[in-house]
Specification:
The structure is a single chain. The protein has about 110 residues and is an alpha+beta fold. It contains two helices and seven strands. The strands form three sheets. Strands 1-4-5 form a three-stranded antiparallel beta sheet. It has a two-stranded antiparallel ribbon with strand order 2-3. A two-stranded antiparallel ribbon has the order 6-7. The protein is globular. The model has no long low-confidence stretch (mean pLDDT about 75).
Length: about 110
């Protein structure tokens, strides 16, 4: 199986996560406690909050196959923060590096 790292658009979140992923035929109909923490996340409206302010961020998704549900998603800060006197720069996700990780990815 091959996959792509793509920008997670609102349309993709609504169709491929909210409707597609959580309603996929191979997914359990009910989950034992504790429930998956991301089960009811609203990917369209989700933000990163740090010390009472919202950080600039980007959403990315791992998509495996045309029209298939998103297999994973990530919200990445693109704004530096200072924590305990240290300036942390945002994590960058070069698509080429992410694609290299997919080469060795073996789904269960």
């Amino acid at each position: 199986m091959t996959g792509e790292i793509l920008a997670l658009t609102d349309q993709m979140a609504a169709g491929r996560i909210h409707k597609g992923w959580w309603n996929h035929q191979d997914l359990k109909k009910r989950f034992d406690a504790p429930q998956p923490i991301d089960r009811y996340w609203q990917w369209i409206d989700i933000d990163i909050e740090y010390e009472g302010r919202y950080l600039a961020s980007e959403k990315v998704a791992l998509v495996a196959g045309e029209g298939d549900p998103v297999q994973g998603a990530m919200l990445i800060s693109v704004q530096p923060i200072v924590y305990e006197g240290v300036n942390y720069t945002p994590m960058e996700l070069p698509v080429a590096a992410a694609e290299e990780l997919l080469i060795d990815w073996e789904p269960d």
